[in-house]
Amino acid sequence: MEHILGNNWTVTPAGGSTGEAYYAQTEGKRLFLKRNSSPFLAVLSAEGIVPKLVWTKRLENGDVITAQEWLEGRELQPEEMDYPRVAALLSKIHHSTELLDMLMRLGKHPLTPDEVLKDIKDNQTVLNQVDPHMEVSVAIDFLQQRVQDVRHDKHVVCHCDTNHNNWLLSAEDQLYLIDWDNAMVADPALDLGMLLHSYIPLDKWDDWLKEYGIIPDENLYQRMIWYAVSQSLAFIQWHQMRGEYDEAALRLRKLNRVMTREGIIE
Fold this sequence. Notes:
- It holds the Pfam family APH.
- InterPro entries: Aminoglycoside_PTrfase (IPR002575), CcrZ_PhaseVar_Mediator (IPR052077), Kinase-like_dom_sf (IPR011009).
- One of its GO terms (molecular function) is transferase activity.
- The structure is a single chain.
- β8 (about 165-170) and β9 (about 175) form a beta hairpin.
- The chain folds into 2 domains: about 1-70, Phosphorylase Kinase, domain 1 (2-Layer Sandwich), CATH 3.30.200; about 75-260, Aminoglycoside 3'-phosphotransferase, Chain: A, domain 2.
- It is globular.
- It has 11 helices and 10 strands.
- It has helices at about 1-5, 40-45, 85-95, 95-105, 115-120, 125, 135-145, 190-200, 205-210, 220-240, 245-260; strands at about 10-15, 20-25, 30-35, 55-60, 65-70, 75, 155-160, 165-170, 175, 185.
- The relative contact order is 0.13.
């Protein structure tokens, strides 16, 4: 990365799941760099959803490097996820026709519950490595039984990982949602289900969803449960395949809490 910016820049890895992100700084200037970020980033920047995109460069080998503002700030704490501004920003994302049009142009087609279930069942051997895994088999049975009931014809841009550490609050009090590598076109219940089940007390769901801009009904609740369970399984699979067994176990405990709260297991 130094050869792109010049010798006076210091570049350090920024961590993350892809290993393709870096912090760069020189006197008076700081940037966040990423290799082969999606063209979707430009629209996210224009919408004010991620920190400002400063420049994009294509290298001779075909790689694309993007540079964003490196902002002073912090990730949200779990207890801050019930703030109205979180609901408002997620609503802005889900209702943006510009984001949806761009992601569709990039070849993202609406993700259906049937495809979600197929992906999980295709990798069930990975899930069966989780010990204990009684919750896994119960969860897959639950998804199979309800898949026909959660099909939905309204699709939006979903972030697909609304974990609190992906919400950045800048020193200027601007809220951003970062790390869009796994974005999909899907039922908004995919984002809503995992976020509410993970962070929002049940007695505050209606108020949170009103801040988001909808009056919930039973169909939405059922779709949110289905996607909370399916996303939990998908994350368990992902961490297992990466050898991140502690994180997989943490996701299994979250799955257990969701299914216990919803009466899927006792």
